[in-house]
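Q: Two folds, back to back.
A: First:
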Amino acid sequence: MLERPQPLPVSSAEEVVFSKAKYGSVKRAFVVLEKDQAVPKQVQEGMIEKNPPNRVELIGDSDHMVMASQPAKLVACLLAIVQDLS
């Protein structure tokens, strides 16, 4: 089993603060993977709530490896996101 024996080093003890003027100006999208067992839907929804994206897409019947389980749906989804947010 691969595992990291210790946490990644932190370069600074200071808290990182993101501003709307810079980080907030970047358009973001979130693709919810309905059957993801690595990151359950409830956790994905919490991520969306804490950092609201400009667009949320849902790919049903997809596990964590959407590029392998639903590649055509992923491509269509990403193309739609690019067209919408460009």
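A: Second:
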Amino acid sequence: MSNTLKTTLLLGLLTGLLLWVGQALGGAQGLVIGLVFAAVMNLGSYWFSDKIVLRMYGARELPPEEAPDLYVDFDETGPYVSAVGESECAT
């Protein structure tokens, strides 16, 4: 089963659970509140999932001083520049 399908099923199950709880606690009005709450949670998960995971794992931006090999200096002449000439690379 693909990850996209698993994620869709999980979010659908969560939405159904929130709708059920909302309807059980507040009737029709609770159902609408549950729907709004589920929509906010699903949209938040969609838009901010990358930031949520990075924060969970304590990720941080790595400055060039700590790992200079991971950074490329585009000002220096590289193999592409020497192959086509500097005038064609400048924008």
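Q: And?
A: The radius of gyration is 24 Å.
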